[in-house]
Amino acid sequence: MNKLSIEQDPEIRTNKTFMMGFFFILGVSSLSGWNAILTGMNFFEKKFIGMKSSFFLPIPNYIGLCLFGIMMPKLSGYLSVQFRIAGGLLFLSIFIVLLPIIAELIPNREGFNLDLVVSIFLGISTCLVRSSSTGLASMYGSEYVAIFFVGNGFSGIFLCIFRFISLVAIDSSKAGLSILITLSFSAFLNFIAIAMFFIFKTTPQYKRGEIIRKQNQLSIIDVDTNDNSQSLLSRQNKINQMGFLKTFWWINKIAFPIPLLVLILYCQTYMMFPGIALKKQFDASFRDWGVAIILLCFNCGDTLGRTFGGTRFYSQTCLIIFVIFRMIQFYPFILIADNILKDDIMAYINFIFICLYPWIYHNWIDVTRTLKNE
After folding, report:
1. End-to-end alpha-carbon separation of the chain, Å?
2. From the CB of residue 331, how many other CB atoms can be counted at a distance below 10 Å?
3. Which residues contact 15 (CB under 8 A, 6 or more apart)?
């Protein structure tokens, strides 16, 4: 059964709007842990004085996300989709709320170490939700993957907007309450995503997807193809027989230079953000607002990149040029951090343009086509 046969079912077509909304909300929720760390960064800096929160706090999140991601192909065979998505979102909500509570109640080295541990579990929960959600979306076609990634971008925008509201509504002396309410809003969106997941489980789309998944024994399936189930299963068996290292080499050989570009883009982003980016100096009375504006600019650029990436109006050469251009942007980032470039507007514009990198992710669609022909 393929995407074409699914889309031709009248009963299933009527649920397409719900599906788009579901994967959008899933995209918003799947990055709630990462955005919680970013949104609360200025608060954590105030509580954990001298501990360089903006540099160290995101690191355990990266470690949990990446290391657990390596194990996901094996774990997906033991953990149900319901546990990985609904359970992962529940864990995310708990750890998101724990972050500011620990900082408020234990504003010392012990509290900082506890938040580092929470950051690891945020990364693990994020990996559970994101990898499984991307796989689920890919079963129904690239348009659902695209809307999922757009939701990733809007995740930060929604949280920034709610942060602005809390800054207006709550006195600056109650910083802990302000950030707790902001992050609780993020957890609330996660519960909406959980509810939508259980509604989605009752739809014909999900039931058809379960049949396909069981037939092919795949945790992540791209059914945007006319291949039959047997050919999908044969390709998966080929991958299973090769083992991890041979599979890694095979995919990179076919997809090159996309995996290398993705690696470089991640390195570029995390070299500058959030540690260096949030070193921009503001007046003390404007610091909370300034950091929130920086994050909003970052997320606007991120969302634009994810949205325009779906248009695929670029070439591979364009992507390589874009990666090189981002290297040049390191210079203004450093000038901003050293307070040499003091113009706020120029700084905000720089934050928008540095985040257009998700264009490259959508080139994986072309890579998928190549893999199908192998």
Report:
1. 20
2. 11
3. 203, 204, 205
Residue carrying structure tokens 């992507």: 319
Residues 362, 305 contacting (CB under 8 angstroms): no
Could you identify the residue written with the tokens 């693990």? 124
Smallest CA-to-CA distance from 258 within 314, 331, 327, 329 is with 314
Q: Which two tokens stand for residue 17?
A: 């709007």
Q: What is the mean pLDDT of the chain?
A: 77
Angle at 335 between CA 304 and CA 330, to 5 degrees: 50
> Could you tell me the two tokens for 250?
């095979």
Alpha helices in 273-374 (DSSP H): 287-309, 316-328, 330-337, 344-353, 364-372
b/e per residue 182-199 (b: at least 16 CB within 10 A): bbebbbebbeebbebbee
As a 3-state breakdown, the chain gives helix, strand, coil percent values, each rounded to 5, of 80, 0, 20
**Residue at 27: amino acid letter:** G
Nearest alpha carbon to residue 179 among 167, 191, 188: 167
Q: Compute the average pLDDT of residues 95-104.
A: 94
CA angle 70, 75, 76 (to 5 degrees): 105
Which CB contacts under 8 angstroms, 24+ apart, belong to 80-84?
A: 81/132, 81/136, 82/197, 82/201, 84/128, 84/129, 84/131, 84/132
Q: Please, what sign has the CA dihedral across residues 95, 152, 162, 176? A: positive
- pTM recorded for the entire structure: 0.79
Q: Which of 195, 148, 149 lies closest to 20, judged by CA?
A: 148
Average pLDDT over residues 168-179: 85
CA 238-243-248 angle, to 5 degrees, is 95
Which tokens hold the place of 274? 């959030």
C-alpha dihedral sign at 110, 112, 113, 118: positive
- Tokens read off for 330: 């390191």
Q: What does the pLDDT look like over 3-40, one tens digit per residue?
A: 434 445 555 555 788 889 999 999 999 999 888 888 88
Helix-then-strand count for the chain, H and E: 20, 0
DSSP label of 225: S
